[in-house]
Structures are given as C-alpha cells and as structure tokens.
Amino acid sequence: MKKTQFLLVVMALCFGMQGFGQRDNTHTFHGAEATLKSYKALYILDQSDEKKMKMVLRNINNALEDPRLKGKLEVELVAFADGVELFKKSNSYDTLLTNLQKKGVILAQCENTIKERKISKEELWPFISYVPSGNGEIIIRQYQGWATVHP
C-alpha cells in the first residue's frame, strides 16, 4: 500500500511538473493596464549630450502618445547641472519644447544651476519655469507619488 501511494505521488509530481516554468502561449502580453484615473511622471535631465537631450524629449512624447496613458498623464521635465543646455536660446530646441508645453508638460529649470554657472534667465527661453533646486524638486515629486524617469 505504501509503495502504491509513493508511486502515485511521484507520478503526480512528474506530470504536474511537466508544465512548470513554461508559458501559456495562448495569450499575448500587451503590457500593463493603466487602471488609474491619472498618472504623474517627472523626467530628469542633468546631461548636455545632444543625443541624451533629444532622447528625453522623444521619451516624453512617447509617453504622452501611449494609448494607455493618453489624457491621463501629467509630465514635468526638470533640468539641472549640464541639463541647462536644453533650455538655452543658443540651442535649437525651442520648437520641440514649445510643442511639449502645448501638451501640458511643465518645463522646469533649477535656479541653483543658473546661479552657480552665472547664467542669466535672459539666456534661457522665456517659457521656462524655475524651481529652487532640481534635487529638491525630485525629492518633493517622489514623495507626492510621481514616477521619476531618468533616461
């Protein structure tokens, strides 16, 4: 009797383990569902590399156009340290930035950076907003429940 029970347990384990770790390919994964009424994302830019700056702007646009988030997403872009280059009039990002702003994106520059680097606000686009410190903005937004994105 014990031998029969042992064999039944072994057989159950063997047949039960056959599918262990295998994925059910009958359902296709489509990503997370956006079940909340609203979402908030803080994008962080602290580099002046042209590829990085364009990537951040493209990432923001992609998030805003994601059909799951469309109309539900509030976005802020905070620039500090070398990221200040994005907001300088001497660079040609004004069209991309104003397009984002028209979509409701907050464009924020760290005032500590411009003070430390002796950059006047006249050197930056007039549609830029300011925060006392980029790090302070990140900390506050994090505790307010914002997702932080640092591409």
Care to describe what's here?
With 151 residues, the protein is of the alpha/beta class. It has 5 helices and 5 strands; from the N terminus they run H-E-H-E-H-E-H-E-H-E. The chain has a single domain, classed as 3-Layer(aba) Sandwich (Hypothetical Protein Ychn, Chain: A). The chain is 38% helix and 17% strand.
The CATH architecture is: 3-Layer(aba) Sandwich
Q: Biggest sheet, strands in spatial order?
A: 4-3-2-1-5
Give a short account of the largest sheet.
5 strands, parallel
Indicate the CATH class. Answer: Alpha Beta
The percentage of residues in β strands lies in 15-25%
The SSE string, one letter per element, is HEHEHEHEHE
Shape summary: elongated
| Number of helical regions | 5
Distance, first to last CA: 63 Å
Q: Might you state the CATH topology name?
A: Hypothetical Protein Ychn, Chain: A
Please identify the structural class as seen in this structure. Answer: alpha/beta
How would you describe the oligomerization state of the chains in this entry?
single chain
Helicity, in percent?
A: 25-40%
Can you tell me the residue ranges where pLDDT is under 50 for at least 5 consecutive residues? none
Quantity of strands, as a count = 5
Summed up, the domain count is 1
- pLDDT averaged over residues: 89
Set out the fold topology.
Layout: H1 2-17, E1 39-45, H2 50-65, E2 73-79, H3 94-102, E3 106-110, H4 111-116, E4 129-131, H5 134-143, E5 147-149
Parallel strand pairs: 1-2, 1-5, 2-3, 3-4
List the keywords.
alpha/beta; 38% helix; single chain; elongated; Hypothetical Protein Ychn, Chain: A; 17% strand
